[in-house]
Amino acid sequence: MKLNIISKQRKKETLKNLKEFRKAFRTNFRKNKIYKMIEKMPLNLNKYLTKYSTGGIIKKYPEDFIVEEITEDGIVLEVGKEIGFKDEENWNGSFIHFTLEKKNWNTLDAIREIAKQTKSKRKNFGFAGTKDKFAITTQRVGCFGVSIEDLKKVNIPNITLRDFQKTNKKLKIGCLWGNRFTIKVRDVEVDKSELDNILKELSKLKYVLNYFGIQRFGSVRPITHVVGKFIVQRDFESAFYAYCGTPLPYDGEKSKEARSLVDEGKFKEALKIYPRIFYYEKRMIKYYLKHRDYKKSFNVLPPQLKSMFVNAYQSYLFNEMINERYKYGFEPLEGDILKDGLPTGALIGYNSKFADGIQGEIERDILEREGIKLEDFKIKGFGNFFGDRRPLIARIYDLEYRIDDDGYVLRFKLEKGTYATSVLREFIDKKINI
């Protein structure tokens, strides 16, 4: 009898040890896979059009980086300025548009807070494009089911709402011409005697490489494209842990601790110490705890954020195309698909049309190298990513500079979808192998 009890206990212990071994093996396998993918996919913005550089830093203060949206009608939403948009004469009660001016807020968090104060829902608000967080920015926002009176009562630090307008038009992503940037560059690394000559040369730039900037991939944790690749591969488990877990060197201490707990499957403990700013990670973890479904946990995210992962992967592939095309130059070549006279590259999606000639070869080679197919971008239960074409270079408008005591100020305009970092990198980055 005693021997049977001992035998059963040993069997239980063996099964428990085996279960723990399998769990540890699976955890380590997944972690290694994620970190190897991150190592394999560093940000690929490494080509330049000029050999000049001033060095320096940006965004020492939010006031150093001003982004003013330019509407489809060409109106610049100037910081601190009332414009006076006219109400629609036959307003049917559908939509209210207003200008959002914010400092040190990202667009999604600002709108979430506005929705909370107006007792509305985040999904009742729309915007033409996201704006930088550590900056002063302006943009139009649209909403329905919210009164102008309630919007005027909104009181949030570093957020101002103005220029309320009654309209029948829904504000959608892409409903803008572009942005005007006013950017202070500090701590330049050249003598003042050289600075003016270098800036004169750089200000001759008419085009820049149309890279997707670091914001597309995550300014603090630049791995959004890695999460996107896992999603395209239908590996939602790795995508979940890459986004909610996976501590990285540039994470804060509390964030690292919480992410390590997530990796170990200790979700409840992670939720207790996860910093408040990681609102979306915490929502996903709570959903997973309740439903045990990695894929569906992404459905708690706002549509723009949910799409951002695959969009970031598409952007990563596009940046690769710029790097490959760099060898051949950016004058139109035989087989190119042009847009406004500029050669384009594929933003790869399920309905992508590839160019012919050299550019077509580049696009097909990248697809093959990644081991993916166009139909992989049709993701059942997650989203369909159509694909598009985007110019490989982008025009700069009204570029000017002003030298002051502690650096210089740049001002320029870019069309929608073009990143200010594409211009700034030509001015600031140290250039190798030009």
TrEMBL record:
Pfam families registered for this protein in UniProt: TruD
The entry's keywords: Isomerase, tRNA processing
One GO molecular-function entry: tRNA pseudouridine(13) synthase activity
Domain TRUD, chain residue ranges per copy: 207-395
Keyword tRNA processing listed: yes
Top-level taxon of the source organism: Archaea
The family this protein is said to belong to: Belongs to the pseudouridine synthase TruD family.
Functional summary from the UniProt entry: Could be responsible for synthesis of pseudouridine from uracil-13 in transfer RNAs.
Protein's name according to its UniProt entry: Probable tRNA pseudouridine synthase D
Organism: Methanotorris igneus (strain DSM 5666 / JCM 11834 / Kol 5)
